[in-house]
Amino acid sequence: MNLDSKILDFHLSELQKKALKKLKIEKVRDLLYHFPTRYGDTSQTNFVENLESGMQATLFGRVKNLKTGKTFRSKMSQATGTFYDDTGEIKVAWFNQPYLAKMLNEEKIIRLTGKVSEYNEKLRINNPKVEEVSEIPIGVGNSLFGKDGEQHTLYPVYSESKGLTSNWIYHNIKKIFKNKFFEKIEDPIPIEILEKYNLPKLKTALIWIHSPHKESDALAARKRFAFEEIFYIQLQRQLARKERGQKKSFKIPVDQKEIKKFVDRFPFELTDSQNHAIGDILNDFKSGKPMARLLEGDVGSGKTAVAAATVYAVTNATPNEKQNFGHLQTAYMVPTEILAKQHFQNFITFFEHMHISIGLITSSGCYKFPSKINPKEATKISRTQLLKWVANGEIPILIGTHSLIQKSVKFENLAYVIIDEQHRFGTLQRQKLARKDDFEPHLLSMTATPIPRTLALTIYGDLDLTLLDQMPMGRKPIITELVLPNQREKIYEKIKEEIANGRQIYVICPRIEEPDPTKQTALNVKSVKAEAKRLKEKIFTKQNIAILHSKMKPDEKEKVMKDFEDGKIDILVSTSVVEVGVNVPNATNIIIEGAERFGLSQLHQLRGRVLRSNHQAYAYLFSDTKSDTSIERLKALQTAKNGFELSEFDLKFRGAGELYGKKQWGVSDLGMEAIKNLKMVEAARVEAGNIVEKNTLKNYPNLKSIIDGKTEVHFE
Ligand code: ADP
Ligand code: MG
Questions:
Q1: Which end of the chain has less neighbouring CB within 10 Å, N or C?
Q2: Does residue 270 contact residue 263 with C-beta atoms inside 8 Å?
Q3: pLDDT tens for residues 320-348?
Q4: Ligand 1 centroid vs 272 CA: distance in angstroms?
Q5: Can you give the CATH number for the domain in which 143 is found?
Q6: Which atom of ligand 1 is nearest the CA belonging to 266?
Q7: 616, 641, 666: which is the final residue of a domain?
């Protein structure tokens, strides 16, 4: 029995259908894989007769005497009722939520949680949370007897959404458990592997995760599903790697002298690290096998120069030995339009002397260098024209955003694909650009996001790795300061001096606008718009301030970036959009507001923005947190040696779920739990490796169908 094929066939209300769709639950498998977020423990529950004022209570029982009306004095709408169990009754009331009383059914058993208070010498519970349940779990109220070994059970609590209660989910999962086909579910993971690592079989694990008798069962089940996820990803990536290795690619001859001449034109000496990286890539080029390499280096470590030198090697090679005209082509994909334009400009400078064409494609327009009229400048051209020249091979270097991977973009001789800031794209997009029948282009992925080793082993299982672990010479290490509210003024004064000396500043705020005041939010977070206004009016009255955020139109953004680059703007207040490779060497100070809200690796990325010149750079982490742990955590930015260390800190302190960039990796929260566990990741890797190496996937049809399903490319 293959779980994937079975569609949910319950009778569903429209609201439920919508809610399920939102949770992406369509098939039986999806529902079974919708795991509880936590478990309630009946030993934490209570009986009415034992309640005292001030207690936080969880009770199981029923309600009666439900009434709706208005409160006596303030005329607020209210619903009241009496909750009772076998031991007594207590008054409950909801204010401003009269519909609650209508939704409750006096016949049904409910779970009620809330704080017990005292009013007119009587106990009551105001605004309790309630949920219908199908039965009273065994052991409710047992903690009260204080005896060891009393029977108690865990009940699952699922994340809820409108129209879908935790109990509905539980109830329907139990229905599936009783269904005949559930008996027939086969486990895709080979039994030898489960036994070797002492993991429960699929059926058992499903029962244990949804209705565990004891905590250790729930934990064992979670472990299995975490392993399962990592194992599937590993298997898929390693298969992709093997498949790629069997394909052919362009053999690119390497003329060391020519390349040296090219890099000698850079206004700097390459670091040893950069030279190594270029060496790795050129070596791959020579092999005739498609390269698949990840270049990982902190922000500012100089990845662009590595890319450019290797693009040069490709551009310089002719399409094949017999043909001595035309060029091999490179596609260079970056995540934002701002970056695409910056790279376009950079590449024009790098390649000007070669007299070749360079194209730029983004959703808001296409450009080509050089222009016919002015050979020193780029010119705007139509998309159709650009695509024509790309298709017939006349444009050897095409730089662009997502627009690069649309079907309409065809190359004559695509030999090299570079994906910059690759964590922004996700694996599937990466595969999409790289795919080309039997003849694969070489692929270079670049990222500045340091991620924990276990995660890298998993999601980059299909790539070879080159590290750029050296910063260009002459860079002074950044000075990072944690700034509490009473020290702000001092920092603002220092920044005024920096501006007077010609430097520029970024101010990063967590949000674009003030929250809607009609909506209740407890967040007191600085916004780009309000903070820019405040700084202009109160602090930096004489300096030029501009804002930049994702909701601005592309040409507005472009103008601001250009003005900032040209030094017309002193202070750029923005959201974290500038985190992606923007290069303004003269901007050497960064203030990050609400720093405690960001992960350490993200803060590290952000401060990298100001590490682009030989001026001393400063990062100021503004925070009004009172939490000692937050402060400790932020201090790691002063002591950690590099981004990798910080990502490991993030994993430890914030948990895998909060790791920066998480959304892009396609790993669930549960899968991320495995990432904390090096042994488990290694085990999954070894087992996946065995299957790939011995070519035994065909012996496990259920596993094969899951892995085949995974490689499907979904796209926008
Ligand atoms: P990233 O790795 O973040 O993409 P970039 O390639 O944008 O970094 O390089 C950051 C800055 O450092 C650029 O201004 C670039 O010209 C400069 N740079 C790169 N390599 C070196 C080097 N070896 N020495 C000095 N400056 C360099
Ligand atoms: Mg970069």
A1: C
A2: yes
A3: 655 556 789 999 999 888 889 989 999 99
A4: 13
A5: 2.40.50.140
A6: 16
A7: 641
CB atoms within 10 A of CB 512: 17
Ligand 1 pocket, 470 CB below 6 A?
A: no
> 576 or 577: whose pLDDT is higher?
576
Q: Whose CA is nearest to atom 23 of ligand 1?
A: 270
Task: Report how many domains make up the chain.
Answer: 3
Question: What DSSP element (H or E) covers 508?
Answer: strand 504-508
> What six digits make up the tokens of 352?
């000007």
Express each pLDDT in 78-133 by its tens digit. 888 999 998 899 999 998 876 777 778 888 889 999 999 998 889 999 999 888 88
Position 242 in a domain: no
Of 403, 447, 398, nearest in space to 422 by CA: 447
State whether 381 and 487 are in the same domain: no
Q: Are residues 550 and 483 in the same domain?
A: yes
Domain range for 358: 256-287+302-447
For 60-76, the pLDDT digits (tens) are 999 999 888 887 777 78
Q: Which of 641, 664, 686 is the last residue of a domain?
A: 641
Q: Whose CA is nearest to atom 18 of ligand 1?
A: 302
Helices 303-316 and 272-287, packing angle to 10 deg: 30
506 alpha carbon – ligand 1 mean position (Å): 19
Does residue 522 share a domain with residue 628? yes
CA of 422 to the centre of ligand 1 (A): 18
Ligand 1 atom closest to 299 (CA):
3
Q: Are 624 and 484 in contact (CB under 8 A)?
A: yes
Q: What is the mean pLDDT of the chain?
A: 86
Q: What is the mean pLDDT of residues 290-298?
A: 91
581 lines ligand 1 (CB under 6 A): yes
Six token digits for residue 476:
């002074």
Task: Quote the ligand 2 centre to 261 CA distance (angstroms).
Answer: 23
Going by their DSSP bridges, the two strands 77-85 and 504-508 should be labelled as: unpaired
In a domain, 11, yes or no: no
Q: Which residues have their alpha-adjacent CB atom under 5 A from ion ligand 2? A: 581
Q: Which atom of ligand 1 is nearest to the CA of 583?
A: 7
| Closest ligand 1 atom to 468 CA | 2
Contact 303 CB / ligand 1 (< 6 Å): yes
Q: Where residue 357 sits, what CATH number does that domain have? A: 3.40.50.300
CB-hemisphere CA count at 13 Å for 437?
A: 4
Q: Is the CB of 605 under 6 A from ligand 1?
A: no
Residues 425 and 497 in one domain: no
Q: Tokens for 362? A: 């983004």
